[in-house]
Amino acid sequence: MTRRSDPTTRQTLGRPPAVLVVPATIAAALLVLPLVALVLDTPWSTFLEQLGSEPVLEALRLTAVASGATVVACIVLGTPLAWLLARVDFRGRAILRAAVAVPLVLPPVVAGVALVTALGRNGLVGPLLRDGGITLPYTTGAVVIAHTFVSMPFYVLSVEGAMRSSGERFDVVAASLGATRWTTFRRVTLPLAMPGILAGSVLAWARSLGEFGATITFAGNYPGTTQTMPSLIYTTLQGDPALARTLSMILLLASVVILAALRNRWLTTP
Amino acid sequence: MTRPVTRPVTGLEAQIHVPDRLDATITAPPGSVVAVIGPNGAGKTTLLRALAGLVEMTGHVTVDTESWTDPPRLVRERHLGFVFQDRSLFPHLTALANVAFGLQSRRTPRRAAEQVAQGWLDRFAIGHLAKRLPGELSGGQAQRVAIARALASDPQLLLLDEPFAGLDVGVATGLRIELARHLADYRGVTLLVTHDAIDALTLADRVLVVDEGRVAQSGSPQEVAARPLTEHVARLVGLNVIRDGEGEGEGEGQTYRSFTPSSVTVSVHRPEGSARHQWHGPIASVAPHGDAVRLLVATQEPTRQELLADVTPGAATELGLTPGREVWLSVKETAVQTYAADRPR
């Protein structure tokens, strides 16, 4: 699906100027070089063996569980929120939309601190939860909450965009045919927003896969319960850089798979 | 919303006020088809949307003795069929599912709804396209689906917003004939917004002329076509109409003169004779019209409106009738029909 410019145009417009080509080359090198280095330096001979080791499998399992649960939480909770933002005119909608987007730009470690402040043992609602028999910090549940906090904005904005572009006109048509808002949502809005839901899910999953700052701050770094792959890589890097490279390679491969899945959506020029 | 089978069928009675957009009173007996015509932006679509409950309005809407406005009913609680200008078929649903949608929304089980829907598709001779998605249908087929969808749940009020817009002439003609057949069987009131005089003359038994947010004229299609009160309708039916008398509104004392473009004599010099039926101005456009050449002349004081005149191609060439050329138009007294406005209903 790559489009090459017409050769005659290339000839008539002349050579690309150095003032653009040089910075472009530097940018490309900056992006590509670390990944090439990682691939070259990965101890491939021991790759499979290390992949099968107990702590790595634990971390992989936890990462898969956490990112899976995050996507489910995003779909179940984020889809209605996206609908509300796209379809219901209420006071403070603009403010809510801005608030929803904040975690996109929030440094993850700040997100972790904020979560501790709200849900920690002595946090805003933490004591209430504890009275109810729920202790969140340093549990796998906390990992999922941290991941959902940072991933949800990607999901909600993607789905809201899809719902907006499919437009309210079909809602009007459905209403003229006697459909309730719930029926309309279920039979019209949701199916039409499906591309946005898929894209949002993949984005949320990718964000969750790499989550480190908020997780380690809010959930800690305990093998088996809260140690996800990024946390394990961070821990391993201190003592065994070679192993850290292997683990990083695993995540890089996962990222490349995501990229391949998204290729048709974002990586083709219109 | 389940309606008793023996609902009283009394038709439509509505008085609609949409601030800055529309002021209209409309009554229509059951089974009638009302063509709503008027220039772009006159308020035709607003009228339909107000009846459907899609725009804020004051006044009242009563359909078959049920008030739709007191207490106000939501769109989905009004039993209506709306064919939107852009058709708006659900792009992800098959033709069959589109037509069945209204029945399913009103709690008909899927299987039964699809049976009824298939029946409607068959009646429009597109039964074999039931499994197609809207994107796989031609314009005429999609419009049939849209009309079938609106009719499938047996609405009390059928609103058609330019149902033939954007269709090829041949396709539109065929669909017009089919629609006429279905409307003949339909017990509810139909409102049909159209830009085409043919629609009004062939489908409607009443015409409502909307202009600048008001009902400018209403009556039978023949009446309105023979004695148009607005320039827009005069153009639609190919007549020239000149409003005489004082003031702007359609008050008492307004008289109208109408005459056909072919009765107009065009000359390049001031003609002899009565000045009453004589106008002067530059030609605005020249276009072929059947065997003739139709001129649009922007006349000057006191009429200051555009008049149509048909001349033979030979005369057009001989007199050098090109846009910008100053000409005099005149009509014989015997070719002019003079009438007064009825009280606007």
UniProtKB/TrEMBL annotation, chain A:
Q: Which GO terms describe its cellular component?
A: plasma membrane
Where in this chain does the record put each ABC transmembrane type-1 domain? 60-262
Main location, first listed in the record: membrane
Q: Which family does it belong to?
A: Belongs to the binding-protein-dependent transport system permease family. CysTW subfamily.
Task: List the Gene Ontology MF annotations in alphabetical order.
Answer: molybdate ion transmembrane transporter activity
Q: From which lineage does this chain's organism come? A: Bacteria, Bacillati, Actinomycetota, Actinomycetes, Propionibacteriales
Q: Which NCBIfam families match?
A: Mo_ABC_porter, modB_ABC
Q: What subcellular compartments does it reside in?
A: Cell membrane
Q: Where are the transmembrane segments?
A: 20-40, 60-86, 98-118, 138-157, 188-206, 242-262
Q: Which organism is it from?
A: Nocardioides psychrotolerans
Q: What is this protein called?
A: Molybdenum transport system permease
What job does the chain carry out?
A: Part of the binding-protein-dependent transport system for molybdenum; probably responsible for the translocation of the substrate across the membrane.
Keyword vocabulary terms for this entry: Cell membrane, Membrane, Molybdenum, Transmembrane, Transmembrane helix, Transport
UniProtKB/TrEMBL annotation, chain B:
- GO BP term (any one): molybdate ion transport
Give GO terms: molecular function aspect only.
ATP binding; ATP hydrolysis activity
Query: Where in this chain does the record put each ABC transporter domain?
Result: 6-237
Q: Which residues form the Mop domain?
A: 272-340
One Pfam family, short name? ABC_tran
| Domain of life of the native organism | Bacteria
Q: Which SUPFAM superfamilies match?
A: MOP-like, P-loop containing nucleoside triphosphate hydrolases
Q: Which UniProt keywords apply?
A: ATP-binding, Molybdenum, Nucleotide-binding, Transport
Check the record and name the SMART domains matching this protein. Answer: AAA
Report what the protein is called.
Molybdate transport system ATP-binding protein
Organism of provenance: Nocardioides psychrotolerans
